[in-house]
Sequence to fold (429 residues):
Amino acid sequence: MPELLAPARDREAFLAALAAGADAIYCGVTGGLNARRRAAGIGEDELAGLCSLAHAHGTRVYVTTNIVVKQSELAGAVEAAARYVAAGADALIIQDWGFLSLVRRELPAAEVHVSTQANVHDARGVALCAELGAARVTLSRELSLAEIARIAAEETRRSAGLGVVPCELEVFAHGAICPSYSGLCMLSSFLREGRSPNRGLCAQPCRLPFDLVGREGVRLQPAERERPLCTHDNCAIDDVAALAQAGVASLKLEGRMKPAAYVHAVTSAWRARLDAIAAGTDTPELDERCRRALKRSFNRGLTDAYLRGASGNELMSYERSGNRGELVGVSLGFEPEPGFVPRDGQQVRGEVVVRLDAPVGEGDSIELRHPAEPTRFLVVVVPHAAAAGELLRLCTPRPIPVGSKARVTKSARLERAAAEAVTALASHA
Fold:
C-alpha cells in the first residue's frame, strides 16, 4: 500500500499524526521557507527531537521548503536546508527550481521531493524532476486516475530503460483543494497586496462571496452560488486500491493549518482503511466508521471529482465555505419553554426536536441551519448520546423552523481521542 503522509502545523499536531499511525509527517519550520507561513510551525530547536521520536516509531519526516525563493535568499535557504537535514529530516519538499538545483549541488546526499506547487502534471515533468535529482514528485491535484496511471507507467518505462530507480509519485488524497492550478494562482496577490501564495501567505479569497455582474449591472449568478470560486474538499478514500494499482507511492493528507484533533481523526481514519484494504479485511462497517470520522472533522463537503476526470459543479461548494460536518437529521418542530414570557425584542426560547438519521454523542456540537435562509444558524451542544432513529431534544435560545438541517460539526469523541493520544505520546517523548 502507499505511504500515508500526514500534516503537522505544530508540535501537538506532529504528535497527533505520529500517534494516529502516519508513515511519514510533513511540517514547516517556524520562520522558514514553507508555503504555510501563517501556521505555527515546528521550532528549529525542536526539530531534531521530533525527528528522533518519529524515527523511533518508524516514521519519516519531510520538511517543507516550498516557496518561491528570492535571489537574495538563496544562500540562506541552502544553509537552512542543511540544518534541517542535519536535524534528521528525511527529505526536503521544494517548489523553486533554482533552489532545488542548489540543494542538489550543495547537499547531494539530501533527498528532495518536488512540491505540488511546481504543478508537475505529466510524465515529461516527472522525467525532468528525476533528471534534476528529485526522488519524488507530488503531482498536480487536478489529475485523474487515468492520467496518474499513465504517468506512473511512462516513468516506469523510462527508468527501466536507463537502469535507474523510478521517481516516486505522491498524490494529495484528502483535504482542501484550489479552484486554480496549484502554484499558479495569483488571485490572493492581486486582491490582498503582499499575500502571495507562492510566498506562503495565501489569503484564500476564493472562499469569499463574489457577485458575477453583467455589463448592465445585473447580478448573473443565482443566490445559492454566492461563492463561485469555492471548492469542496478532496477525499479519495474510495480510490485507495485504484491509486495503489496505478503506482502511487504516497497518499498526502492536506492540513498544515489544521489543529491536532483534525490531524488525529483524519489520519486515524485513513490508517484504518489502508490497513484493512492491505489485509483484505475491509468491510462496509469499517468504511462507514471511517467516513463518519472524516465528515465530523472539518470539511467543505467531500469529493473525488478530479480523480474521476470531472471538474464541473460537482467540484464546487458554491453556497458555503465553512465546515459542513455530517448531516445527521432534520428538525421536526419547536416547543416553547413552558411559562417563559419574552421581554421586548426577546426571542422565545425552548426545545427543537430533531429526528436523527445517524448517531450522536454527548458533547457533540450540532449546527441547526434555517432551510430557507442558509446564513441563519445556531450551534448547540448535544446533552446526551442518541442513536439513529431516535428523537433528540435540543435547547435553543430562539425558534428553529421545521426542516432545518442538523449537522455534527465537532465530535466530542474524536476530540477526546486526539487529546488522550497526544498526551500519552508526549509523556514518553
Observations:
- Residues 123 and 154 are 6 Å apart (CA to CA).
- The longest strand covers residues 326-336.
